[in-house]
Amino acid sequence: MLKINFGKLKFLRSIKIRIFLIVFIVGIIPSTITRYAIVRNYEQRAVALRTSDVQTQLQILANHLISYRYLQDTSSEVIDAELKMLSNLYDGRVLIINNNLKVIKDTYGISEGKTIISEEVIRCLKGTNTSNYDSDNGYIEMTIPITEITDVDTAADSPVESSIARGVMLTSVSTDYITTTMEILNRKAMVVEALVVLVIFIVSILASYVIIRPFEKITDALRKVKEGYTSDPISVQDCLETEHIGDAFNEVLGRMKVLDDSRQEFVSNVSHELKTPITSIKVLADSLRGQEDLPIELYREFMEDIADEIDREDKIINDLLALIKMDRTSSDLNIDQVDINVLVELIMKRLRPIAFKKNVELVYESIRPVVAAVDEVKITLVITNLVENAIKYNKEFGWVKVTLDADHQFFTVEVADSGIGIPAESIEHIYERFYRVDKSHSREIEGTGLGLAITRSAILMHRGSIKVVSEEGEGTTFTVKIPLTYISVT
Ligand code: ADP
Predict the structure, then answer these.
(1) Could you identify the atom of ligand 1 that is nearest to the CA of residue 319?
(2) Closest ligand 1 atom, CA of 447?
(3) How many CB atoms lie within 10 A of CB 309?
(4) Is the N or the C terminus of the chain less surrounded, counting Cβ atoms within 10 Å?
């Protein structure tokens, strides 16, 4: 795309100045062209008129020259008078040249007896009128032949005349009056043009102000929001464009508000979650401190409780750190070709003891071998979280079934359990940070409410998807779908 570097002409970047210049230039050019066209048109017409006038007069004179045999004898007073009148009338000079190219009469009396060899005269002797306008020196030069009718063929159906050029009249007439009229015309047109320019100048200033006004209003409204006077949506309905800018800005403002709200909620949740174990520790420690001579067993029991709370705090902090890592861009992914079957088997092996403790059966079914380009650590976290939840939120003697399958584009990991299920109204919240379905019964089952948030972020970083189907009291099935090849979005 063409990018203009305005450099020193920085003021041209202002739309107001641009609108002014465009309106001004577009307004001025036609008026200047019109003035020029009017003056030129007048000049052409005036020259054409004068040429035809003079040529008519010369034609009449040429006929008189023949009838008075002036070419043979230049002593005719009638012709001299006519010549004088013509040159006075048109402020010009007439030269009569015979067919030997000799000047036999010059109204200025300078060139008589001289021979004139000019292209126009020779062409004219062959019967062609010529005329030439010299605008620089202010005259029209023209030639017309002096012809004599020599023969009339009356035998033909229509009489045919034949004529012969006996000489040439070379005339130059002044065009001073045309120039003078043009100057007057030009001056008047310039006055009109100046008035037009003035009007255009005022109109362009007004136009630039009127067009820019809504944009100034919107800048003003944006400034108020920026400076924090208000966070209300802005509205400048003066024109469609500003309305669109306002709508787009309000949308961004809305999104920022949502972000800000969720950040505030997150911070308050984090503080609350981090405070809970500390409060418990404080209570336990205080009760130990307040009583003397307590049996050592009670000490041990309280200390174990304190250690449990510290573990919980540690887990929350670790989960928070994991979540923050997920919030970074996908460029932090460490993509490698990973054998997903091996990976799932390894996770199952690690979790088997926990399942065993809860009397939950762990089943793994691999439909086909799968190798995919993924971040091994993050996908391990995803599958571990889902299987761990399936064990945690299960019933005694329940089961967890993990199925791995793939097509040519994606691989899917399905984690199904026969557990307590998730109530329908909670389904949409389970991926929220710190969300736990039933906080009271969740107390017995350890957790931070961050696991699924971390899981979902990791899946999204891989451009995958997660779905859940659950029936309260029956069980839950999570299905994760991840592309086999990683597509980075730059
Ligand atoms: P938590 O640390 O509490 O397990 P998660 O983010 O992993 O946090 O899960 C959020 C909530 O979703 C859990 O507290 C639990 O109530 C519910 N949940 C997750 N997985 C299951 C499941 N397989 N069966 C029933 N409820 C589940």
Answers:
(1) 2
(2) 2
(3) 19
(4) N
Pocket test for ligand 1, best of 393, 425, 435 (most atoms within 8 A of CB): 393
Amino acid at 413: V
Q: 288-326 pLDDT, tens per residue? A: 888 888 888 988 999 999 999 999 899 889 888 888 877
Higher pLDDT, 327 or 143: 143
CA 199 from chain center: how many Å?
33
Q: Six-digit token pair at 135?
A: 């605008």
- Ligand 1 geometric centre to CA of 389 (Å): 6
Is residue 448 within 8 A of residue 434, CB to CB? The reply is yes
Q: Candidates 387, 445, 452: which one to mutate for ligand 1, based on the most atoms within 8 Å of Cβ?
A: 452
Contact present, 477 and 415 (Cβ < 8 Å): yes
User: If you take atom 25 of ligand 1, which residue's CA is the nearest one?
Assistant: 421
Regarding pTM above 0.70, the answer is: no
How far is residue 138's CA from residue 194's CA, in Å, rounded to a whole number? 28
Spacing, Cα 153 to ligand 1 middle (Å): 126
Give the distance (Å) from ligand 1 centre to CA of residue 430. Answer: 7
Count CB-CB contacts under 10 A for residue 258: 10
In this structure, how many other beta carbons lie within 10 angstroms of the beta carbon of residue 448? 19
pLDDT digits (tens, 9 = 90+) for 247-257: 999 999 888 88
How confident is the model over 217-246, as pLDDT tens digits?
Answer: 888 988 888 887 777 888 888 888 888 998
What is the whole-number distance in angstroms between the Cα of residue 438 and the centre of ligand 1?
9
- Is 45 exposed, middle or buried, given 0-12, 13-18 or 19+ CB atoms closer than 10 A? exposed
CA 373 to ligand 1 center in whole angstroms: 28
- Residue 266 Cα distances to 150, 171, 313, 369, angstroms: 119, 103, 17, 40
CA-nearest of 199, 173, 197 to 52 is 173
Residues paired with 480 in a beta bridge: 413, 466
Pair 366, 341: CB distance under 8 Å: yes
Any residues with Cβ below 6 Å from ligand 1, and which? 385, 389-390, 393, 417, 419-422, 430, 435-437, 442, 447-453, 476
Name the region of 268 (left: φ>0; alpha: ψ -120 to 50; beta: rest). Answer: alpha
User: Which 3 state secondary structure label does DSSP give 64?
Assistant: helix
* CA-closest candidate to residue 27, choices 209, 203, 211: 203
* Burial 3-33, CB ≥16 within 10 A → b, else e: eeeeeeeeeeeeebeebbeebbeebbeebee
Closest ligand 1 atom to Cα of 385:
7
